[in-house]
Amino acid sequence: RELVRSQSARCLAAYAYASAGPGESSTDLVFSGHSLIAENGALLAESDRFSFATTMVVADIDVERLLNERRRSNSFAAAAGFTPRVLSFRLADTVADSALRPISATPFVPADDSERSARCREIFAIQTTGLARRLRHTGGSKAVLGISGGLDSTLALLVTVKAFDRLGLAHAGIEAVTMPGFGTTARTRGNAERLANLLGVSLKVIPIAAAVRQHFRDIGHDETTHDITFENAQARERTQILMDLANRNGALVVGTGDLSELALGWCTYNGDHMSMYGVNSGVPKTLVQYLVAWCAEAEFSGEIAKILADIVDTPVSPELLPPKANGEINQITEETIGPYLLHDFFLYQVVRLQAPPAKILFSARQAFAGRYSDGEILRWLKLFYQRFFAQQFKRSCLPDGPKVGSVALSPRGDWRMPSDASANLWLNELDRLKADS
User: Fold this and answer.
1) What 3-state class would DSSP assign to 178?
2) Which residues of 415-428 are buried (b: 16+ CB within 10 A; e: fewer)?
3) pLDDT band, very low/low/confident/very high, at 363 (cuts 50, 70, 90)
């Protein structure tokens, strides 16, 4: 909107703009169908966005006024030949301990409340439109997804409910499946089941412990060995259940994984990594929390809002390891892979700004001053690079899902990276930075 308006002012012209609409493919992008007409800096007409109906905007353009404005302008003249004057000077490298400009610790999350609310509304609309477009394309009226009582699956459920509302479909066509396993806690399971019931979706409870134990016997794995096999077998069992339910009911499996998990490869290959449409694949973890909180304030109320608030306060965990003796979550994701606050900062710096490790360290010092030491920043930045490179093979076969911002990791568009790329250059620089710090 501002680009069209300001360009019409700069050119002393009328600017009519029409973008592609939601009828386009939603494989990796969602088009809003935004149409605008501006004249000399004034917005004359604007359409609604994300509407599946064909829209048109009409406005009167005062051509004579524009011609007069151009005559009055001293700077609007025929472009004359211009030879630039080049001044040569030397600019030496400057060593600085701090920067004058502020550096946000949450580049994906606006600090201003109203701006953050507007961003959440925009992203939620992109997610719901993308899923609705995919359902319309397939001719389906049913969806299935796994719910755990965690942030990601909760957001995916809310998106699915609103997509069904947009299409005029009954919530009963959404099959929300909770699949308690060895690490499931009463808090997360209770929140998942209560939320599903309040939203009016079809709730299905399928415990997976017996099936996974049989699988362990089949492959000769000791159940008391809580290794990667123990964890991933549960994730793949859950995905198998969802896929089979989708086949039986003619439904679409809605993926729940977010952008941060994709960057770190924090998902089970051919487990929760796989779906038929990943609505959260463009949303970083730090923003997921705000989106769920925004939904509690702007889209829902009452008991649903209370449950959403408790989900926001629940520690992030895959719940694949047995809980503590008191029933609380025993597996905290950020204790294993580091703070998502840092990883989302690294993700933005690496992918969006293409910053080298030294610059990322400098920026992180400013953004997290007094919160994380150089040693902590370097530790988790090293892990980020290691996982970001090593886990590309999961992103190379990523399901479809909508891009919602300036950073995306789809192998079909924004991020074309070989699965066998080496991180050695970046890791070597990190070692030098650690030695110098």
Assistant:
1) strand
2) beeeeeeebeebee
3) very high
Answer whether residue 24 shows pLDDT above 80: yes
Tokens of 324: 């503590």
Sequence spans of domains, the chain: 2-61, 113-436
SS (H, E, C) 219-274: HCCCCCCCCHHHHHHHHHHHHHHHHHHHHHHCCEEEECCCHHHHHHCCCCCCCCCC
The residue type at 210: A
Judged on CB neighbours under 10 Å (0-12, 13-18, 19+), 322 is middle
pLDDT at residue 80, as a whole number: 55
Starting at the earlier edge strand, list the strands of the sheet with 252-255.
Answer: 202-205, 174-178, 143-146, 252-255, 277-278
What pLDDT band is residue 93 in, cutting at 50, 70 and 90?
A: confident
> Which of 150, 175, 149 has its CA nearest to residue 160?
175
Architecture in CATH for domain 113-436: 3-Layer(aba) Sandwich (3.40)
What global pTM score does this model have? 0.86
